[in-house]
Fold this sequence. Notes:
Layout: E1 4-10, E2 24-29, E3 32-38, H1 42-48, E4 56-60, H2 66-69, H3 72-81, E5 88-93, H4 96-107, E6 115-120, E7 127-130, E8 134-140, E9 148-154, E10 160-161, H5 163-168, H6 176-180, E11 185-186, E12 192-193, H7 195-198, E13 199-200, E14 207-211, E15 229-233, H8 241-246, H9 252-262, E16 267-270, H10 280-286, E17 293-295, E18 301-303
Parallel strand pairs: 3-4, 4-5, 5-6, 14-15, 15-16, 16-17
Antiparallel strand pairs: 1-2, 1-18, 2-3, 7-8, 8-9, 9-14, 10-13, 11-12
Helix pairs in contact: 9-10
Catalytic activity: Endonucleolytic cleavage of RNA, removing extra 3' nucleotides from tRNA precursor, generating 3' termini of tRNAs. A 3'-hydroxy group is left at the tRNA terminus and a 5'-phosphoryl group is left at the trailer molecule
Cofactor: Zn(2+)
Subunit structure: Homodimer.
Amino acid sequence: MEKFELHILGSGSALPTTRHFPTSQVVNLRDKLFMIDCGEGAQLQFRKSRLKFSRLNRIFISHLHGDHCFGLPGLISTLNLLGRTADLHIHSPKGLEELLTPMLAFFNHQMTYKIFFHAFETKEAALIYEDRSLTVTTIPLRHRMPCCGFLFAEKPRPNHILRDMIDFYQVPVYELNRIKNGADYVTPEGEVIPNARLTRPSAAPRRYAYCSDTIYLPSITEQIKGVDLLFHEATFAEDAAPRAKETFHTTASQAAQIARDAEVKKLLIGHFSARYDDEQVLLEEARPVFPNTQLAKETLCISV
Length: 304
């Protein structure tokens, strides 16, 4: 199966601690890297996770709170020092380009590569990136400022050719692409060979949903229904539910309810408040609601 991995660079929230870096993740799909949020220290964590800067071409910023984007100036500068020449594309809610441009102009007089900013709206789901193997769609969230999560969806792959059947029916090479994409084969004698006899289905396409930061928002369950992996913020335990509501964050048990109602396969919780010396309390609250829950930890790598 083709590589589809999630790397956790940071799983903390806004207040710094010695245990966690601010929020940042990297999706590795077939050795193409996509960064999600870029808190302080993200470039250091990039190194620790043994990821290659040269394979990073897209960054997706959920919202413009500092713990999700303060790492960008340092990362952009590092790429410049490394002599990068490939374009870098940054997707975010409106305002990031205006914030970063003066800083980049001051610290990076001679850029070795170009940066392209792509602003998106946050009130409705929208397709913001697509290539041959992947789509990225926004997930509207509710926070203290415009904010979106992201749904990374692998595209369906062509069927696998059954080589012995291809040889048996003496199928010409020029027919193989059509057959991979579902076409039947018609022999020179006019016999129709069903596609199911010539191929086997490829593995089901995989999906990863990222939801941070947001108040408890049951309306997102339809969009993330049945995803293979869901990351959902779990900033607080249930005894701090009033504080979660006040700051537009979610508790661990609420994140688990979202996972249960959306019938996802696995839940990863993170964006931990600095008040917790041990996030095990959050895991213990989530698992009774949704058993297949795991804590996000720095340098953790999960196969989707």
